[in-house]
Design a protein that fits this description.
heterodimer, A: 19 helices, 2 strands, 76% helix, globular, B: 523 residues, two-stranded antiparallel sheet, 21 helices
Chain lengths: 480, 523
């Protein structure tokens, strides 16, 4: 590959072109013509994956604000996987629910573009632009079922709180610029390291503002209020997408900003994040126990998973950074698949996402129940699944940094979380099918392929994680 | 390779069964035979391991080591010594019996049932052979999943509650152990520069006494819940009573031993100073468990619950033997683990048979079965006496050695534990009397069928084993001698730092004493 200033943006461009192609195709589509628009998107995503692989270890940089270092590329690969799985699940849902295919796929792809940009951005302003690109797309996706009042409400809530948090974020950027005279992360980091201004209130305000902005996006407690409503109201497949993609992108940027630019101030921000992490883990699991809607339950579970990821951030050592990457991948695959099952079980008129809708699923759809069980066990962190290795990695980071208390809180909350994951398993396996319920939807084709592929990945990461652990370790060696 | 086969065979068998199409239950019969065949092959493999085992060596044998996650020094590292050898064989021995017991009682979802039992066997064997803490933890936690489904799907009416309680209780203990495991790996890396989860390397790690205390507590909590040690036992009666017969047999026969095995293999040798400090307290809990379990067992109206509480009592003996930290105590503990697996496994099996026939397990519902089911009564009597610890049967040897060891360490504990032996005779014989003697009080009992050939196939090996273990204990004591000696030496070597050990407590002399006890036992 030639070295041009555009190298680092190639993965993003692949997805952008795919999104544009989808929009064009939709425009020229005949009224009843069937088009594989999702396939077009997958082609673009695969292009992004291939170009990411080619860029591996090259540390390409475009215009000084987008860097395709291994860290960003690893997250890009995670996002590509999320995107591909989402499109595969969506292909079933879009047809079934009569969603506008062109707009839907284009929005998914643009959201992925924003996510990739966020993961590879090296400038606070570019991170902000990326945040807005992905947020706008996701707001619309949340409310894409316009006839559903719950979805509209969710989209509106999400939009209001998201705009609110963007304001915080922007303020943080402004303050940072005011202190350091730059929005580039490397320059901020160099400036802060050179100056001893640990007691300057201005920089602490800047850090605090940015922290709030990120905390909103990763739905850390107490900035999580929008999450359960947005996740419950959105179509399940979109929820799966945003609970993983948005979180992965936001965490990548969060890690990059706080562990490179603001590293010199870790003494100041680590205790703040410590509190956030503990509150997030505890509230996410404890409130999750009380839920009867599976989507809402998984929303709280994803809040809790954000807490575990924060543990890696606090540990702030090499193990912790690599653990964040691995955990993001493991969590992303598992969560997309879990929401995929919910999406596939729904029908056009009924979401079928209450706990009792899963009763006796084993008898009617044994394969689907088994796949869902694997996802839930992985989310609960039981071996031999990806979730176990992820948790183990995160907590070993905490222990090696001396945060025993954090590790203990983390493992205990994960036991509590197992309780509510098991409730779904109990419903599926140990209850008879509620006679008032319709037979579960038949699942086949692309949706099943995507599910089986996710399960294979979950077991692969759980049993033979060596290769991916290596990649994660390589990813953090180039930066920070 | 042989050792890897011993857990791989059941796992591969389970995966193969997964491929057999059986949506309408037409192939139930074939699946039962297939599962039984797989478990018998696995048993043969474990016997092969025993045959090739060198009893003179205290080293780990059949050691296999492959790099698994090299970044963290995690290996696929397995091996057995005299302590784990017989537990592996016990697992191989009980699984076919458990499968056989399900032939009469499990009618629906036979395929899934067989898969879970085989997966469970794989995980249990894995726990006993792992020499890498990470690998151990993986098996330890993975084992929960099949057991959870076995209780939750095929159990009795309160099965869901029992299954979740079992899972959460065990996990709550084991996750703290995970933190301690990570802490040890970190300490090793701080001391030597590299992570490792290798048990043998961690044995030689020097840990500060204060840290030892915390790590010891984290490990021991996990094991104490599994054993279960008073006051962590409340999951056990629920899980046992609600589990299907096959589940109870494996739960009592093997699963509980994972806790005491963990104490022997991990808690005590990894943190010897902390162990010496906490041993009296653990022993106190064990003795409370012995007496409490026996007293509660006495008043149970439900036979299965009675046997479950008797397990609390019997496992208390094992922990007491371990805490004594001398050769007799430790040997007795391992022996009692095996003996309890056979006799309590047998009791659960036969209570399950009664329950299949009458769909009740209440003692009051029975009476006078001796005239109706003479063969069954005879077999049940053997198991009852074995459980009480009658000389000549398996329970005696272990309890005797444990009491001897405990007496030499702290006579007060031995005296209190002796009370437990008497109480066990009370509750077991009283139950036996009410169920089998007297007139037949319920009409439904008059037509009960005696043991069928298929049921004999499960009961007979257990009765034979109870007798063999009672009469020829040397067969089973011999392989563990060297390993137990090494363990005791290791424990006492660290203790000499604190207290001077009298000359007569050296293992060499204890060896002679054990021979005496064997002679007593043989009589």
């Amino acid at each position: 590959m030639m070295d041009t200033p555009f190298n680092a943006v190639v993965p993003m461009l692949c997805v952008v072109f795919a999104a544009l192609a989808v929009m064009m195709a939709e425009a020229f589509r005949g009224r009843d013509e069937q088009m594989a628009l999702g396939g077009l998107g997958i082609v673009g995503l695969v292009g992004a994956a291939v170009s990411s692989m080619l860029l591996w270890n090259r540390n390409a940089s475009s215009f000084g604000v987008i860097v395709a270092d291994n860290f960003g590329l690893f997250v890009t690969m995670t996002l590509v996987i999320v995107g591909v799985l989402t499109i595969m699940f969506s292909s079933v849902v879009v047809r079934r629910d009569g969603l506008p295919a062109g707009e839907y796929y284009a929005l998914v792809l643009f959201a992925v573009v924003g996510m990739i940009m966020m993961a590879t951005a090296n400038d606070l302003l570019v991170i902000f632009i990326a945040l807005e690109i992905l947020s706008l797309a996701v707001y619309v996706l949340t409310g894409i079922r316009r006839d559903d009042p719950r979805a509209t409400e969710a989209a509106f809530k999400y939009f209001l709180l998201g705009a609110f948090s963007s304001a915080f974020f922007l303020y943080g950027i402004a303050f940072t610029y005011g202190v350091s005279g730059s929005t580039r992360l490397d320059r901020i980091g160099a400036f802060l390291a050179a100056q001893s201004m640990s007691d300057s209130p201005l920089i602490l305000v800047a850090i605090g503002m940015l922290l709030v902005g990120f905390a909103f996006k990763i739905s850390a407690v107490p900035f999580h209020m929008w999450t359960p409503d947005a996740y419950e109201g959105a179509p399940a497949v979109v929820t799966g997408f945003m609970s993983t993609g948005v979180k992965a992108a936001a965490f990548a940027a969060f890690t990059r900003v706080f562990l490179s630019a603001f590293e010199p101030f870790s003494v100041d921000w680590a205790p703040m994040i410590w509190i956030l992490a503990v509150a997030t883990m505890i509230l996410g699991t404890v409130v999750g126990v009380a839920q009867t809607n599976v989507k809402r339950m998984l929303a709280y579970s994803s809040i809790a998973h954000g807490g575990y990821l924060l543990v890696g951030l606090i540990a702030a050592n090499d193990v912790g950074k690599a653990a964040i990457l691995f955990y993001l991948l493991a969590y992303a695959v598992t969560n997309v698949a879990a929401f995929g099952v919910i999406a596939l079980l729904g029908t056009r008129d009924a979401a079928n996402d209450e706990l009792r809708d899963f009763s006796g699923l084993w008898h009617g759809r044994p394969a689907l129940a088994a796949l869902m069980t694997v996802c839930l066990l992985s989310l609960g962190g039981l071996p031999p699944t990806a979730g176990f290795i992820g948790k183990w990695y995160i907590f070993s980071a905490a222990v090696s940094a001396g945060y025993y208390g954090l590790a203990i809180i983390g493992v205990l909350t994960s036991v509590v979380s197992v309780f509510f994951y098991l409730r779904v398993v109990v419903m599926m396996y140990m209850e008879e099918r509620d006679p008032g319920l319709a037979a579960p939807a038949h699942v086949g084709g692309v949706g099943m392929v995507a599910l089986v592929a996710s399960i294979v990945v979950i077991f692969y990461l759980g049993v033979l994680p060596t290769r991916v652990l290596d990649l994660a370790a390589e990813s953090i060696s180039t930066i920070f | 390779m042989l050792l890897t086969l011993s857990w791989l065979v059941p796992l591969v068998g389970a995966l193969l069964l997964l491929l057999v199409g059986n949506a309408d239950g037409r192939r139930d019969g074939m699946i039962r035979w297939l599962a039984l065949g797989v478990s018998l092959i696995a048993f043969a493999v474990t016997l092969g391991v025993w045959a090739a085992f060198d009893p003179a060596s205290a080293e780990f044998q059949f050691v296999e080591r492959h790099s698994w996650i090299p970044q963290f020094g995690i290996d696929y590292f397995v091996g057995i010594d005299g302590i784990s050898l017989l537990l592996v064989v016990l697992t191989g021995f009980l699984t076919p019996i458990a499968l056989l017991s399900s032939w009469g009682s499990i009618e629906r979802k036979v395929k899934e049932f067989s898969i879970f039992i085989l997966a469970l066997e794989a995980a249990m064997v894995g726990v006993f052979i792992s020499l890498d803490l990470f690998l151990f933890y993986v098996f330890w936690d993975a084992m929960l999943i099949p057991m959870y489904f076995l209780i939750g799907i095929w159990g009795y009416d309160r099965r869901v509650y029992a299954a979740i309680k079992f899972m959460l209780y065990t996990m709550a203990g084991s996750v703290l152990m995970l933190v301690a495991i990570l802490g040890m790996a970190y300490l090793h890396s701080a001391a030597t520069g590299s992570y490792t989860f290798d048990l043998l390397k961690l044995y030689s790690l020097d840990i500060a006494p204060q840290t030892q205390m915390w790590f010891f507590l984290a490990f021991t909590l996990a094991f104490a819940i599994k054993v279960p040690l008073f006051p962590f036992h409340t999951w056990l009666p629920d899980a046992h009573v609600q589990a299907p017969t096959a589940g109870s047999v494996i739960l009592a026969g093997v699963l509980l031993k994972m806790g005491t095995y963990g104490l022997l293999r991990f808690s005590f040798p990894l943190f010897p100073e902390a162990a010496a400090y906490f041993a009296p307290w653990l022993a106190l809990l064990a003795v409370i468990g012995i007496i409490y379990g026996a007293l509660v067992a006495m008043v149970q109206p439900d036979m299965k619950k009675l046997v479950a509480y008797s397990s609390v009592s019997h496992l208390g003996f094992v922990v007491l033997g371990i805490c004594a930290m001398n050769t007799q105590g430790m040997q007795g503990a391992v022996y009692q683990m095996l003996a309890h697996g056979v006799s309590t496994g047998g009791l659960f099996l036969m209570v399950g048979m009664l329950s299949d026939r009458r769909h009740t397990r209440l003692i009051a519902e029975f009476g006078g079965l001796k005239t109706v089911m003479p063969q069954f009564t005879a077999a049940f009597l053997i198991m009852t006496l074995a459980s009480i610890g009658l000389p000549g049967l398996n329970g005696f040897v272990g309890e005797f050695l444990i009491m001897l060891g405990a007496f030499r360490w702290a006579p007060a504990f031995a005296v209190a534990a002796g009370l437990g032996v008497i109480l066990s005779a009370v509750y077991m014989l009283w139950m036996f009397q009410r169920v089998f003697y007297g007139p037949v009080t319920h009409e439904a009992n008059e037509t009960l069928t005696d043991l069928q050939p298929r049921e004999w196939a499960g009961v007979l090996p257990l009765c034979a084993m109870a007798l063999v273990m009672g009469v020829f204990p040397t067969i089973f004591l011999k392989p563990m001698e060297a390993s137990v000696d090494a363990l005791v030496l290791r424990m006492q070597a660290t203790q000499t730092v604190q207290v001077e050990i009298p000359v007569d407590r050296r293992p060499d002399d204890e060896r002679r004493l054990t021979t005496v006890t064997e002679r007593v036992a043989r009589r």
